[in-house]
Design brief:
The chain has strands spanning 2-7, 10-12, 18-26, 33-39, 46-52, 57-59, 67-72, 77-82, 91-101, 105-109, 117-121. It is 0% helix and 55% strand. The protein is built from no helices and eleven strands. The termini are far apart.
Length: 123
């Protein structure tokens, strides 16, 4: 019903930057928000950032002031600009569609996942 394709990952040095992209297609009209998750080796998947179609944004504490989420509603795209990358950011990054309250935050993910894109931060 929903297809998600992540891209833009790679190998970068600490302090470097990457820009991730996610293309969404299919039956996504019912969802008002998109987000980025990541999963590090041996760890659970965690929510990184979310954005509603109206532009309300929330970030995990670990990435505030370093990552920026944005979207292009006309293209059904969501992006994640990652600056000042740290080794702790190493993970497979996934995008997602779901619901978020623009006034109080929170994110309710739907169980649709792409293959992810690998980000490796290492010297």
């Amino acid at each position: 019903q929903v297809q998600l394709v992540e891209s833009g990952g790679g190998l970068v040095r600490p302090g470097g930057s990457l820009r991730l992209s996610c293309a969404a297609s299919g039956s996504i009209f019912a969802f008002n928000a998109m987000g980025w998750y990541r999963q590090a080796p041996g760890q659970q998947r965690e929510l990184v950032a979310t954005i509603t179609h109206g532009g309300s944004i929330n970030y995990a504490d670990s990435v505030k002031a370093r990552f920026t989420i944005s979207r292009d509603n006309a293209k059904n795209m969501v992006y994640l600009q990652m600056n000042d990358l740290k080794p702790e950011d190493t993970a497979v990054y996934f995008c997602n569609v779901g619901f978020s309250d623009p006034d109080v935050g929170g994110y309710y993910a739907m169980d649709f996942w792409g293959k992810g894109t690998l980000v490796t931060v290492s010297s």
